[in-house]
Specification:
CATH topology of the largest domain: Spore Coat Polysaccharide Biosynthesis Protein SpsA, Chain A
Number of strands: 9
Order of helices and strands: EHEHEHEEHEEHEHHEHHHHHH
Number of helices: 13
Low-confidence stretches: none
CATH class of the largest domain: Alpha Beta
Distance between the termini: 48 Å
Strand content: 15-25%
Number of domains: 2
Structural class: alpha/beta
Radius of gyration: 20 Å
CATH superfamily of the largest domain: Spore Coat Polysaccharide Biosynthesis Protein SpsA, Chain A
C-alpha cells in the first residue's frame, strides 16, 4: 500500500546538514510517508549520513554526475507513489506539525486546490538569528513574485500529470517555473504559520549568480506573456536580473536589464538608482548593495 506522502530531498555535497533535514521529516506528527533522497553526484560523505538512518521509509539513490535539482526532483517524482508530494531542500528543516496541517488542509479542500504552502522562518546559519516571514496569500500575486518556498509546499500528484515535470534545462528557478505552470490549472492554498526553517548561508544556490542568471532568463522567456500582465512586477524581475548581472561582473548586460526595467515601469526609483550604480565597477556595485542590505537587516 502506498504512503500518503512522498517527501523528495535532492542533495549535493551537504553531508553537514542533510541529516538535520531528514530528522525533521522523521520527527513529523504525521508519519505516513516515504522519503526519496536523490544524491546528485556528491563527493563528500552524504551517502554515509543518509544510510546511517535506520528507517525503511528512506530510499537513497545516487547519480553518477551532477545534473541539477530539476533532474533530481523528476527522478524522485517518477519513482514515488504517494497521493501527495512534498519537497524539502537539503539545507532546510520542517517544524513537527507541517505535514499534518497540510494534509488536513488538502483533505478538506476542493480538487481545484492543487497544493498548499506555509510561512517560513528565515534563519541565518552562522548567527542563528531568525525571523518569521510570510509567503503571501493566494492568487496571481504570489506567482508574479515567487512567494512559494519550495520546502514549504505539499502538492497533489495530479499536478504533475496535468502540467508535466520540472524543466531540466533550468539550473535555477525550475521550481518557480513549475509553480507558475501549476497555477494555470490549479489554485494554491496557504497556511499563514511558519512551519519551515529556511537557512541562509554562503553555500546557498542563490549565491551562484551564473546559474541564477541562466534560470531567470529562461523563466522570463517562457512566461513573458504572464509577467507582462503586471508591468510593475515585470519591471522588478528585470531589475533583479540586472543586479545579478552586476554581481556576476557583467556590467553592460546589467545596464541593459535596468534600462528594460525602466521602460516597463518608469515610476520605480530603484531602477534609476541601480542604473547609475552600474556605471561603477562590479566590486563597488557589490560593496554598495551589500552595505545597503546590511543596514536594512
Amino acid at each position: 500500500m502506498s504512503p500518503t506522502i512522498s517527501v523528495i530531498i535532492p542533495t549535493f555535497n551537504r553531508a553537514d546538514c542533510i541529516g538535520a533535514a531528514i530528522s525533521s521529516v522523521l520527527n513529523q506528527t504525521f508519519q505516513d510517508f516515504e522519503i526519496f533522497v536523490v544524491d546528485d553526484g556528491s563527493n563528500d560523505n552524504t551517502q554515509e549520513v543518509v544510510c546511517g538512518f535506520n528507517d525503511s521509509r528512506i530510499k537513497y539513490q545516487r547519480q553518477k554526475k551532477n545534473t541539477g535539482c530539476a533532474g533530481s526532483r523528476n527522478i524522485a517524482v517518477r519513482n514515488s507513489s504517494a497521493k501527495y508530494i512534498a519537497f524539502l531542500d537539503d539545507d532546510d528543516e520542517w517544524l513537527p506539525e507541517k505535514l499534518q496541517r497540510q494534509v488536513s488542509f488538502l483533505e478538506t479542500s476542493s480538487p481545484e486546490v492543487g497544493g498548499v504552502h506555509t510561512g517560513c522562518f528565515l534563519v541565518e546559519k552562522d548567527s542563528g538569528r531568525m525571523k518569521a516571514t510570510s509567503d503571501g496569500g493566494n492568487g496571481d500575486a504570489q506567482m508574479w513574485r515567487n512567494n512559494i518556498a519550495t520546502s514549504s509546499l505539499l502538492v497533489r500528484r495530479e499536478c504533475f500529470s496535468r502540467v508535466g515535470f520540472f524543466d531540466e534545462t533550468m539550473l535555477c528557478a525550475s521550481d518557480y517555473d513549475m509553480w507558475i505552470r501549476i497555477s494555470k490549472v490549479f489554485r494554491f492554498g496557504y497556511i499563514d504559520t511558519p512551519l519551515v526553517k529556511y537557512y541562509i548561508h554562503q553555500n546557498k544556490l542563490s549565491k551562484n549568480y551564473g546559474k541564477m542568471i541562466g534560470g531567470r532568463e529562461i523563466l522570463l522567456n517562457k512566461h513573458r506573456s504572464f509577467f507582462a500582465t503586471n508591468a510593475r512586477v515585470y519591471s522588478r524581475h528585470y531589475l533583479q536580473l540586472g543586479v545579478l548581472y552586476c554581481y556576476y561582473g557583467n556590467m553592460p548586460k546589467g545596464r541593459r536589464a535596468f534600462l528594460t526595467a525602466i521602460y516597463l515601469y518608469p515610476l520605480e526609483i530603484r531602477n534609476y538608482f541601480n542604473l547609475c550604480l552600474s556605471l561603477a565597477s562590479a566590486q563597488n556595485f557589490r560593496r554598495v548593495k551589500d552595505f545597503k542590505a546590511e543596514v536594512q537587516k
